[in-house]
Amino acid sequence: MAPQPQHTLLDIRNLHLRLPSPKGELHLLNDISLTLERGRTLGIVGESGAGKSMLIRAIMGLASRKARISGEIRFDGDTITGMPEARRRRLLGARVGVVFQNPTASLNAFERVGPQVSEAARVHRGISAEEARELAISLLERVGIPDAASCHDRYPHEFSGGMKQRIMIASALAIEPDLLIADEATTALDVTVQKEILDLLQILQAETGMGMIQVTHNLGVVAGRTDEVAVMYGGRLVETGPTRAVFEAPGHQYTQRLIAAVPSLQAPIDQELVSIPGQPPDRLIGIRACPFAPRCAAATPLCSETMPVLAPAGDDGHKAACHHPPRVPAQTLEGAR
Amino acid sequence: MTAPLLHVRNLSVTFPRGRQSFKAVDDVSIDLGPTEALGLVGESGSGKTTIGRAVLRLLPFAERNVSGEIDFHGRPLTAAKAAELKAFRAQAQMVFQDPVSSFNPRRRIEEIVAEGLRIQGVGKTEIAERVDTALAEVGMSRSMVEGRRPHQFSGGQCQRIAIARALALRPEMLVCDEPVASLDVSVQARVLNLLRDMRRARSLAMIFISHDLAVVRSICDRIAVLYMGRIVEIGDVRQIFERPAHPYTRTLLDAVPVPDARAKVVPSPERAVRASRLEEEGGCAFRTRCPFAQDICARVRPELATTPLGQQAACHFPLPAAAVPA
Fold first, then answer.
1. B110-133: per-residue pLDDT in tens?
2. Contact status of B326 with chain A (Cβ, < 8 Å)
3. Are residues B36 and B182 in the same domain?
4. Which of A6, B230, B249, B307 could disulfide-pair with B244, CB 3.0 to 4.6 Å?
5. A190 and B254 in contact by Cβ < 8 A?
6. What range does the domain containing B27 cover?
7. CATH number at residue B123
8. What is the pLDDT at residue B322?
């Protein structure tokens, strides 16, 4: 593909987020730099506690008020870090849609689904009640809810988990967002429903040209569905680059393990599964060495002494922060704990 | 096959839904050998959890809504009285999806692991021994857990504690209901490897419930695929993965997210149309989603029959081996 002039939608530079706690200041996000072009999809991947959701909260201005944030986040050219809260909310609320993991918790159980779908458009666009109803019905149709007109007046409990997640997507689309963030949006769903929802998001993105961020713990969900991927560990970005390059030749031991940990349909049936021993760091205070070193099979004394920095690991901006980048493809990893 | 440990014949479970009723499990028959692991796979609402609970007699109002036979060691479980049932509880244990909510948050871990043993009337010294052994088997130790409570452990650790709690009773059968569905992928593998090792070391019989075929693949000897309360395919793990006969099994296999970025996924705009569960309809329940459905599928309900590939499938048009890419 010939390089096209691109338009940066989201530009995060040297983002740090620290949160005071009784045990000391927690370094929840450390020096995160990422960009997302309009019309592209970025996967943010990592285990629980890696900082994925905290990063999304920092972008959306939803982090705790006690959090100390430094660095810069620009959305479509506007610097949103340090922007007065009301202005930031107006800007992002009108242009960014978010779909969270648990649709049952995100939907108001006592309100009919139609008004919930059109809510953001009523708040940010000031449309009339009639327009809102029409909009909600057309959005419900668009996300594949059968008989959308009658569903408009039904309550959330009348829908299955997959249907509720479709309703959440419809409400995120109400503002015709420039950016859609799916935060573990399919994690709680059956694999068949997960596939349908991922397909739907991909189709909607192609139709609208919006940018999209997929946050997940499962690399299988971003493979083949994202343009770029960012792998987080211990509040840091440990690898980032074009999705295909990262999967074919991971530049970080952690990424390679995460890829190998996805249960395969190809591996010999009686082969032991690849797991990652130990626990992710939980204290996140003053880590000065590679945060993955205590769990890494390839770690040497260097890893527990010096913090590896993000350095080129391939073409097209593929970078990784690993002292001992893997040399073998992930597929050939032997089962190990 | 040697005499089965668990023998289930024509199991049906019905739940009332207002004036109508809802058949969660519809005429299911399975046998489980003494050291066999059987996977029950299907989507939400397929009846897999209800079967798991029925064979452990954990369903509310069990007598009223359950029909069919469930024999354990050749004795009818449905007729078991309190004392018999208590003995059965030591022989058959369960591991739930969400370990944290299956624990009492105010109990200490060592009490949680010992609870079943206390109920069974095991002596104090023996409880201590068996708790230590069970913790060691799941890669933990008393010093790691002593005095601590569930919230101080991660999801993966809690699931290992839940497995230790079940193993402490030295059961013959373990029912695992989505034991890794709420865990990170990186932690899933550890729990799956542990269950697989336990199975072998303890010669355990196991029923493993999951919506994800990839998860049961490394653990089970046989797989039963369920759709809307009925078994649509059952066979050896290799048959199911290498030559699935039922189009629904194929659908489940295609939905597994694989970590392969060589080709872009081509999204399909189709949304599966799931048939209503309340209206009793004839024909094959999967026909509304099936690419191969013909007129007969709406009229005649297919029964389980042995396919040329060796497994059993309930399908008028089972997939030929050639249709499945190797």
1. 999 999 999 999 999 999 999 999
2. no
3. yes
4. B249
5. no
6. 6-220
7. 3.40.50.300
8. 46
